[in-house]
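FAQ: What does a multi-protein file look like?

Like this. Sequence, then tokens, then the next protein.
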Amino acid sequence: MEFGKVNSDQVKEIDFTLPEDGQQTSKVLNGQPGKAEVFIGCAKWGRKEWVGLIYPPKTKEADFLDEYAKHFNSIELNAAYYQIPSLDSVRKWRKKASDNAPGDFLFCPKFPKIISHDQRLTGSEQTTAEYLKAVAEFGDTLGACFLQLSESFGVKNLPVLSDYLKFLPKEPAIFVELRHEQWFSDPVIRKQVFELFTATKKGAVITDVSGRRDLVHMEVTVPEVFIRFIGNGSMHKKNDFARIEEWGSRLKLWQEKGLQKIYFFLHQHDELDTPLLAAHTVKVFNEQLGLKIPGITLQPTLFD
């Protein structure tokens, strides 16, 4: 993942402190404390570099999802971005997850590129219907769907965005990632767009990445959150761990104010040791949120 990447020597200069809650958060999270459902995962299961790390040695690519589902309870399904998955593919993935996951497992499929980047939401009703029909095949393993808009999709497109969000059905849950800087820098536009999300019952993706701290907007527009956390690699593991711990503290506060569901997806620019970040996330969230998510089991090595 290259979006928001900075040079390694720049990481120490960045203030990773989470900002104060956004205006919309205080309006949405005003309920009774409870226990949020928490889903932690990565963006892809097809990582050859995880063989010998979390996948057993000699695991075949055809069996990667089977092994992935033994460790994680969700996935940010980036595969759907490149093309709408066939019904047969969805059925196959759902069965693999259901057969191997120790508990509930959710797929969070990304909206396809043809809708978000090629058509830019305009005239995309038929394509959207095809996408929603495909992902509906996930049944009870379908989590939130994720619409990522391009960096060039700016505030002049607010009417288009508004019309599209109003066109979308109430279910499944849908979260939107905005990337153009003006959505966050202009206070009037910022207020308007996040109020639109609440009015249409759509979530706002929070992306915690080094080079775009404005995307850590802390605006909760529905009583659920979808957080994309991008780490900076093994050289900065201590820093990334501290960032995850701060997220645990903030999510605990939000849970006490009525947050109902948490999707927390881990990325790195080099995905080699993303499972190590995920293992720390599970540990921290279990401690801070009072959860009992099974830990991520690393493969034994010759040095264990």
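And here is the next protein:
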Amino acid sequence: MAVPESRSATREHSGTSDVVGTAVFAGCAVWALVSAAGREGRPEGVLLAVLAVAAGYTCGRISGTLAPVATAGTLALAAYVLAVAARHDVPGDTAESAAPPGDTGAVAALLVLAVGGACCAAAASGATRQRNSLLVAAGVAALSGPVLGSVAGMVAAVGVLLCSLAAARMRHRLLGLAGFAGATCLMVGVSWAVAVKALPEGLAAALEGQLTAHRVLLWEDAVDLVRANPLLGAGPDRFGDLSPTALESLNSDGKPHSALFQLAAEQGVAGVLLLGAAFGWLLYALWRSPRATPVVLTAGAALTALAAVATVGNALSFTPVTAGAGLLAGLATARSPDGAIPGEEPV
């Protein structure tokens, strides 16, 4: 029996996406080992994060094919329960911090995953009542951010919910994914500009007031480490040993509170490029996904919000966050049972 052209193309693009993703994450793991070689670097945290994303993505691809609504709903519930628990402790915390985990961005990231999972379940559901119930649950979870001690989490989660509602009216996904990529690049660019003092004084002061002067000082230390060793960085998990601000701070977790600046300081420019490649691969995989556009754009909005949270916090130091991000991406890129795109082209 001949395979229909659209189905064959879908499988070909999916296979290409899987190969590229495998290469990118293998590169992240290998570079962590390379940047730690011959020094006191500790690559275990990076390797654990890569493993968590890969495991979550694989589980999402499998369960997303078998039971997408139930799996997304379970992710939403689990992430929200962990967000509530994060005010006291976060299972899988790799930051080794004496500071309250809620201050590190874990609550915000988990709220984003909870709302993203609920909205993905709603977008994949064929029952109107179930879909509306899931959207209401997502709204309640998002608005509970201040109660859980994370106003930023509420803002990010509400943004995901609004994007999900807008995605329900969109048939083509490329423009939306391009917007997510642009927003992420803007966030990264502004953060770097703050660290190198490239912004006008008034704007810089306003942003510093939101970020806190302590965090900006940590970022400036990270930039200094990049300038000292732009290729290999200082070595994985060595920022706390070399940052004057971290060394002088009480209860410091030894992190710059930004995935961008941590990788730049500890693994050099190549580490940042690999992080960017990983996010770019996620967007590419979503573009070629056989899932419906509302599901794809909802997942893209959640992953973009998570990237924003990780840019200004150390949310990626928590295994539940990295595993949840992988699971959400896997759900949104899983094949339909028949392997076909449900009535639309992924453009």
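Q: Is there any per-entry metadata?
A: Some entries carry free-text notes. For the entry above: Residues 1-12, 90-104, 339-347 have pLDDT under 50 and may be disordered.
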